[in-house]
Structures are given as structure tokens and as C-alpha cells.
Known about the structure:
The protein is mostly helical. It has helices at residues 7-20, 25-45, 65-81, 83-101. The protein contains four helices and no strands. The chain starts with 6 loop residues before the first helix and ends with a helix.
Amino acid sequence: xxxxxxxxxxxxxxxxxxxxxxxxxxxxxxxxxxxxxxxxxxxxxxxxxxxxxxxxxxxxxxxxxxxxxxxxxxxxxxxxxxxxxxxxxxxxxxxxxxxxxx
Length: 102
């Protein structure tokens, strides 16, 4: 995944937009993780290889199985329906197009 799709760039953008929207706690964590996953899947679909490897892009670390399952459900919903995740992905696409044409 080129740096423009790197975890840190996408995560920071998702964090900024989520915080501006008032998200906190698991809502914030789910949005950041969902944005990273969408960007990674998009890069993988384009056969782009990562320039850096992250052991774990996880933001939340639930300590109980029930909490983990609840977080995974929230992550799935956020991945599919969050306008912030969509905006972050569109922003990263726009940035890559601008860099590619420069």
C-alpha cells in the first residue's frame, strides 16, 4: 500500500474527521479501523503493495469476548454505512490522483 494509503495517513484523517463530528470511545475506534480496512482493501484491489507493515492497525482492544463481539458488530456497521469512512476514502483517492498527475 503506498504511503498515501498507509495506516497512519488514513487513520489520522479518520481521527480528525471523527473527532470533529464528536465521536469518542468505541465509535471513534470503529471509524478509524473501518477507514483503514477500506483503504487497505482498495489498495489490495489495485495490487498496490504496502511500503510499511503494521503489526496491528487496531485502535480498540476489548478485553472480554462479549465486548470484542460487540465491537466487531459496530465495526461492520461503520465499515458499511459511515459517511466519515466514505469521506476519508474519497479524500485518499483524490490525494492519490493529484499526486499521480503531478
